Amino acid sequence: MAESVVPPTPPPTPSPTPSPSPPVPSLHRHELRASDEEREKVATMLRQACSEGRLDTEELEQRVEVAYGARTRGELDAIVRDLPGARQAHRAGRHRRAWRTALASYVTFNAWMVGIWAATGAHYFWPIWTLLPAGIALLGARLRGEGPPPGRLRPGRHDRRRDRSRRRDLPRPQ
Fold it and tell me: What is the pLDDT of residues 110-139, one digit of tens each?
């Protein structure tokens, strides 16, 4: 009787486990890299300020040169910090974001209400009691040029939370 020899199987090799990467701290707006479009917007703002008499041509040339060489948004902000249009543009952007957030909340909430109404038999259209008052208030605020109601979307609260989490990510002095 012949014995069959089975070659031994090699032991399984351990799979490499990825080592956890160190946490990447989030960046402030002013630390982010500036795009070519942002540099061009700043240059346009500077030219507009020169045409309004806020800058002379020599200062315009210096600032435009610095703007095209800027790497971060903070550097761009510093170039136009003393011009009135810069803050208005920043506020307008924040207002648009607040408006979009309020509108998205209105649509999402009322879509849920209509969905519940449809799922429960679709008899009396009771979601009208959330659609109309909130819709009228939202439309009125939009027509008056206002954002969402006060107390909502306060810009400072988010910034404080982000700063607090960033401080936690920094190494402690020994």
Answer: 999 999 999 998 888 999 998 999 888 888
Distance set, CA 53 to CA 2, 49, 60, 124 (Å): 105, 6, 11, 63
| Neighbour-count burial for 130-140, b at 16+ CB within 10 Å, e otherwise | ebeeeeeebee
Beta carbons of 112 and 105 less than 8 angstroms apart: no
Angle at 146 between CA 144 and CA 149, to 5 degrees: 125
Angle, alpha carbons 128-134-135 (nearest 5°): 80
- Residues in contact with 129: Cβ distance below 8 Å, sequence separation at least 6, in sequence order: none
Nearest CA to 155 out of 74, 95, 71 is that of: 95
pLDDT in tens, 56-102: 889 989 999 999 998 988 888 888 888 886 555 555 566 677 778 88
